[in-house]
């Protein structure tokens, strides 16, 4: 086992593994460590499939999205394996959509919606954006390709080895792990839900959510391309606006950064209060309502009751997403809202009620799909989303430790960027200036751009 390296990567989910791969293939000596055994389900990178799309609300993302697509093609050529299946994507909402991107098409005509995706039951009056480049990433295979590529290029990847402490020196970093002391010229912190612990100065930017997904059996034509592609169904009101966000735990006001979180560390969130006194309810997990004492902003009667009665446990303000069975992996769906969670606790497995509600959502939006919770579910999974207020990543060098690169807070939409994030980290560790990353940079956060999410973000 090495005691020195050009780069030490901490955290070997998709982004840490991608960084190790891109760095090693560029000639750097790389050591990567992860606190859990290989194949664990404690983070955000496990599971069979993920969505990929070009459609984003803000054009600031377009270049990074393009780099991601190019990166997946590069990985496919290098590995000889297919990692991306293009199916097209239909992203629907009850109001006007701000989604844009190369080749994307605004669609309002119901006949056109049915033509594009015959199996998707779009709610009456909803508008949509069609993204012809959207599709499915073979997630498990992608992580395996990154790790195999890193090892083939000479990287050492060690699982079950935790970082205990790190410090910056004039020429690099010293890291104490659970098994050794390492010296590296560069340190990459791709620690996912543990980023606030790795860099306490940034902890106030993050919130960790537990998310549940369900995958039903493959081989159903109604849930396969071309009848079904990637999709989402978003509420049509201002639940994600500057006023705050309805979510598991009830009404959550906008993120306040240090102003809001200075009294409590994220490690304390999602504790026994939610397990002992909370309750599972329509709209997802909600602790007991405290009225003015706890929220002071809104009465429960305003919590979108029609969404609850029609959509089961869909949290008001939450977006339903679906991933078609593009390569025999099954039809997957979930809701992008979940209970605030302490990552030191293993994510609780999906409950029978959660699985049943997701199956009902799948049947609602893809009529004819077999979604019986007892007979048709092949995977019910929990994972962690590390969220920022505006759902943008935090990627860049730390100003007070310029040989430390943070790659974090992918806010539920980061897997698709794996090769692009790995490439960006490699560039930063070579001392390159990547001004195209300023919109997700560390400096942007330190300058105070961590306010409530605005419409049109991320």
Outline the structure in words.
This protein has 458 residues and is of the alpha+beta class. The chain is built from 11 helices and 23 strands. It has helices at residues 14-25, 62-79, 110-116, 139-152, 195-198, 257-261, 272-277, 305-311, 352-365, 418-429, 442-446, and strands at 4-10, 30-34, 49-52, 84-86, 89-93, 105-107, 127-131, 135-138, 156-159, 163-168, 173-177, 181-189, 207-216, 230-234, 245-247, 250-252, 279-281, 284-286, 320-323, 331-335, 377-387, 394-398, 401-408. Strands 1, 2, 9, 10, 11, 12, 22 and 23 form an 8-stranded mixed sheet that branches. An 8-stranded mixed sheet has the order 6-7-5-14-19-20-13-21, covered by helices on one side. Strands 3-8-4 form a 3-stranded antiparallel sheet. A hairpin with a 2-residue loop joins β15 (245-247) and β16 (250-252). α1 packs across α10. The longest helix is centred in the N-terminal third of the chain and has 18 residues, at 62-79. Residues 237-317 and 451-456 have low confidence and may be disordered.
Question: Using DSSP, what is the number of strands?
Answer: 23
> Ranges with pLDDT <50 over ≥5 residues?
237-317, 451-456
- State the share of residues found in helices, binned by percent: 10-25%
Alpha-beta content class: alpha+beta
* Helical segment count: 11
Strand content is 25-35%
| Global morphology | globular
Mean pLDDT: 83
Biggest sheet: strands, sense, closure? 8 strands, mixed
Q: Report the radius of gyration as a whole number of Å.
A: 21 Å
First CA to last CA: what distance? 41 Å
Topology (elements, then pairings):
Layout: E1 4-10, H1 14-25, E2 30-34, E3 49-52, H2 62-79, E4 84-86, E5 89-93, E6 105-107, H3 110-116, E7 127-131, E8 135-138, H4 139-152, E9 156-159, E10 163-168, E11 173-177, E12 181-189, H5 195-198, E13 207-216, E14 230-234, E15 245-247, E16 250-252, H6 257-261, H7 272-277, E17 279-281, E18 284-286, H8 305-311, E19 320-323, E20 331-335, H9 352-365, E21 377-387, E22 394-398, E23 401-408, H10 418-429, H11 442-446
Parallel strand pairs: 1-2, 1-12, 2-9, 5-14, 12-23
Antiparallel strand pairs: 3-8, 4-8, 5-7, 6-7, 10-11, 11-12, 13-20, 13-21, 14-19, 15-16, 17-18, 19-20, 22-23
Helix pairs in contact: 1-4, 1-10, 2-10
């Amino acid at each position: 086992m090495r005691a020195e390296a050009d780069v030490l990567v901490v955290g070997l989910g998709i982004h840490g593994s991608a960084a190790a791969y891109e760095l090693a293939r560029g000639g750097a000596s790389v050591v990567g460590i992860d606190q859990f055994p290989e194949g664990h389900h404690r983070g955000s990178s496990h599971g069979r499939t993920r969505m990929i799309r070009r459609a984003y609300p803000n054009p600031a993302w377009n270049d990074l999205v393009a780099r991601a697509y190019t990166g997946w093609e590069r990985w496919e050529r290098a590995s000889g394996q297919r990692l991306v299946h293009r199916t097209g994507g239909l992203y629907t909402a009850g109001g006007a959509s701000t989604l844009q991107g190369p080749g994307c098409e605004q669609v309002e005509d119901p006949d056109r919606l049915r033509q594009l995706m015959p199996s998707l039951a779009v709610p009456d009056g909803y508008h949509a954006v069609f993204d012809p480049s959207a599709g499915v990433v073979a997630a498990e295979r992608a992580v395996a390709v990154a790790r195999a590529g890193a090892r083939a290029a000479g990287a050492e990847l060690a699982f079950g080895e935790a970082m205990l402490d790190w410090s910056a020196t004039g020429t690099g970093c010293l890291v104490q792990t659970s098994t050794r002391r390492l010296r590296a010229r560069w340190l990459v912190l791709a620690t996912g839900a543990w980023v606030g612990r790795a860099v306490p100065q940034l902890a106030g930017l993050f919130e960790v959510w537990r998310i549940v997904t369900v995958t039903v059996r493959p081989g159903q034509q109604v849930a396969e391309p071309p009848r079904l592609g990637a999709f989402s169904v978003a509420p049509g009101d201002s639940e994600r606006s500057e006023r705050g966000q309805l979510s598991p735990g009830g009404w959550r006001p906008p993120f306040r950064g240090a102003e809001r979180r200075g009294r409590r560390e994220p490690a304390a969130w999602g504790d026994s209060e939610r397990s002992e006194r909370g309750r599972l309810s329509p709209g997802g997990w909600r602790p007991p309502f405290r009225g003015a004492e706890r929220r002071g902003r809104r009465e429960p009667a305003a919590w979108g009751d029609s969404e609850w009665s029609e959509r089961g446990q869909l949290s008001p303000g939450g977006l339903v997403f679906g991933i078609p069975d593009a390569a025999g992996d099954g039809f997957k769906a979930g809701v992008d809202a979940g209970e605030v969670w302490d990552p030191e606790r293993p994510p609780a497995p999906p409950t029978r009620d959660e699985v049943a509600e997701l199956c009902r959502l799948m049947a609602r939006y893809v009529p004819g799909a077999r979604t019986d919770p007892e007979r048709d579910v092949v995977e019910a999974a929990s994972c962690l989303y590390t969220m920022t207020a505006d759902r943008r990543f935090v990627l860049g060098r730390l100003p007070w430790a310029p040989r430390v690169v943070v790659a974090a807070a992918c806010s539920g939409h980061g897997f698709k960027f794996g090769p692009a994030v790995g490439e960006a980290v490699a560039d930063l560790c070579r001392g390159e200036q990547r001004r195209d990353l300023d919109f997700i940079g560390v400096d942007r956060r330190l300058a105070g751009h961590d306010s409530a999410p605005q419409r049109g973000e991320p």
